[in-house]
Amino acid sequence: MRSSSSTTIQTVTQDFDFNKNILSFEPADQHLNDNGPFGKHHSVHDEPSPHSCNRGSGLILSSIFSTLMTVMTLNVSTTVYVSNEQVNVTWTPMTAPCVDDFIGIYFGEIPLDKACDYFDYEFIKSEKTNSISWQMINLRRPLQFRYYSRDHSCSGNYSLVAQSVLIEPLNYNEPTQIHLAYGDRLDQIFVSYLTNSSQYSPQCQYGLNPLSLEFHQNGTTTTYTASDMCEGKANAWGPQAFIDPGYMHTILLEDLQPGTIYYYRVGNDELGWSAVYSFTNRPADKNQGVTLIAFGDMGLSPVEPGAKSTVARVTTQVLSKNITCLLHIGDISYARGIGALWDAFMTQIQPIAARVPYMVGIGNHEYDHATGGNKDPSGAPGPGGFRPGWGDYGTDSGGECAVPMVHRFHSPSNGNSLFWYSFDVGPVHVVYYSTEHDFRRSSPQYAWIEQDLRLVNRSRTPWLIVGSHRQMYTSELESIAEHEITMMLQLYLEPLFYQYRVDVNLFAHRHSYERSCPMYQKKCVADGITHVLIGMAGQNLDTGVYSSVPWSQYHDQQFGYTTIFVNQTYLHFTYYHDSDDSIADQFVLTK
């Protein structure tokens, strides 16, 4: 039996009716988009006329491209840029463009006859269109915009119609992708950023006054290459596969005072400094309240349908309220082997992650692979890690097998890198575990989870929150393979969580929201675990039907995010819709 230490719940919203429960088969990537890193949204297989791109040499130099004199100029609003700046491209409209004529953005050295070796693109479609705006990211190389049109009454190959001058980053070594993470101790923070060079030591200047950054700390540098990853697209070089990721720098700040605001900047005198940011270190006093933001399955803004609004809402929360940290429980960037998407994602979260620790967990789109296991940074046995006879463990990482994740993000070292670890924040102990790795009783992960839960000091951290990527419970339609994993999680981990009095279990994977009553083994009980599905942060929403089950208190399929305010005796969980930032669901637990 679970300990008699009681938790009470106050339900603030009412349940909805459910539809009939059925099992169905559903393609694993049904909800994925084939998006580019420069803010353009594309449906899967919507790339420019792939048959023309892939026919013969890919592009025939027609008369329109016979000499440079026949190529028009694309005008750009600036020839130098910084990350996140909007660059406008304008041109003289063509008469009757083909529906798949497009403007793409390329590395400057890509040959002009490689029309489809773009990073991103947008179709022209209308002769009235004469401008396109692009949200820039620093890829550390010269870039160029090019306009390609189809030959032979729109049935032939692509020909170059117009091109821009080269555009370049204002600073090739601009400190970008700045983000924070918790270290092993309460007085530690990791500060990470990226540049194009490893020539000089990475540095962080910090202090209690933005005008006087009196402390200084050096850091370490790392990078990775295509051959470091496990398989597939991640092993190939190209604008739609692996590109040089630059150098990732990390500085560990120590001896930080609890609950104290620090100002900082990163870089060095030789290559330049970032702007000054600030963060508040986590409190050491269990009596001090904390506020966490939590979600999963966000992906890249603005191209994922809901990511743009989630990023905007969360950024506002971080800038206007005292947010302690953020929990992103898997399916982080959806890069899936496309290196430039990591650059775009890390740039997108900087306004958030440079101000609050951005704590990540592993999802299927970061890790799952079938071969190359000797390169798997988690150390899982076998060529593809955990691949039991049940479930739908596939190749959803595009071959990355979490290599970009472990180079870009940081965590406490008390578990297995980013795969499973734990940390304290105020009165809360947070445990991240991996549903992409073996979680059965004989596994190293299970042994670690049991030991971590057993050693939690509930007088120091009375609240216990666990999080992983795949759902332990949902009343939404599941495929048979998904349902098998759900049942195994209930079989192996739910009893352990109940034994050690876990308060809240967070998970995602399904692109929707659902919240249970305090429950155990599908029954509402006073001392149960509240399960919350929070996979609604950005990727295409689920449209499946729901079954009528007594434990489900609220569900919907809307984009949003959640906040968790916790003090020693009170936990208030709130789910907001992105559309109007209204409260869609909330509940309170007390001790």
TrEMBL record:
Region called Disordered, residue ranges: 370-391
Segments forming domain Purple acid phosphatase C-terminal:
528-586
- Report the GO terms under cellular component: extracellular region
Q: Which GO terms describe its molecular function?
A: acid phosphatase activity; metal ion binding
A Pfam match is Pur_ac_phosph_N
Report the locations given in the UniProt record: Secreted
Quote the InterPro entries the UniProt record gives.
Calcineurin-like_PHP, Metallo-depent_PP-like, MPP_PAP, PAPs_C, PAPs_N, Purple_acid_Pase-like_N
The chemistry this enzyme catalyses reads: a phosphate monoester + H2O = an alcohol + phosphate
Q: What is its EC number?
A: 3.1.3.2
Domain (Calcineurin-like phosphoesterase) ranges: 292-513
Feature: compositional bias, Gly residues? 381-391
Ranges for the Purple acid phosphatase N-terminal domain? 175-280
Query: SUPFAM superfamilies given for it?
Result: Metallo-dependent phosphatases (SSF56300), Purple acid phosphatase, N-terminal domain (SSF49363)
Task: From the record, give the transmembrane residue ranges.
Answer: none
Which controlled-vocabulary keywords does the entry list? Answer: Glycoprotein, Hydrolase, Secreted, Signal
The similarity annotation says: Belongs to the metallophosphoesterase superfamily. Purple acid phosphatase family.
Q: How does it assemble?
A: Homodimer.
- Record-given protein name: Purple acid phosphatase
